[in-house]
Amino acid sequence: MKIKSLEISGFKSFYDKTRIHFDHELNAIVGPNGCGKSNIIDAIRWILGEQNPRQLRANVMKEIISNGSEFLKPLGMAEVSLVMEKVPTYDFEQVEIKRRVFRSGENEYYLNGVQCRLKDITDIFIDTGSGARAFSIIGQGRVDQLITAKPEDKRTVIEEVAGIRKYKLRRRETETRIKATRENLSRVKDMTNEVKRQMETLSLQAKQAAEFRELSEEARKLEYRILRAKTRKLETRRQKVLAEKATLDRHVSEAEAEIIQAAGVQKALGQRAHESEEALRQLEEAIFRTRTELNQKISSQELIKTEISNIDRFIEKIESETGLMTNERVSLLSQIDAKKAALEEVGEALRTGREGIAKSEEKLAGVKAGFAEIRTEHREIRDSLFKTLDEYSSLKGAALGYEKELKELYSKKESIDREIAEAGEEKEHMLLEISRMEQILADYEARKAGIREKKEELTAAMASAREERARHAAENESAREELKENASRLNALNQIEINYEWLPEGIRDFILENKGNG
Question: In 10 A of CB 353, how many CB atoms?
Answer without folding.
Answer: 20
